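Checklist before submission:
- one chain only
- standard amino acids only
- sequence pasted in full

Submission:
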Amino acid sequence: RPLYTINGEHFVSELLELCGGRNVFSELEELAPTIDVEAVVARDPEVMLASDTAGADAFADWQRWPTMAANRYGNHYL
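Returned file contents:
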């Protein structure tokens, strides 16, 4: 299944900033581009978000990268 993210122009990025966070994909030109797993792993996010439609197992595949910060901290949110 494809992975999508958002850029810095998306309102969710603004919400992240208001909460003290930073979108690691904010510089991308497209508002909601598709990305690959390697791009996520390379940017090593501290938090991962998924839509509630992704379901409870939305983060199961990411456990293959236990050293990724979001996995180490357990920061996965639907």
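Reviewer check: The chain has three helices and four strands.
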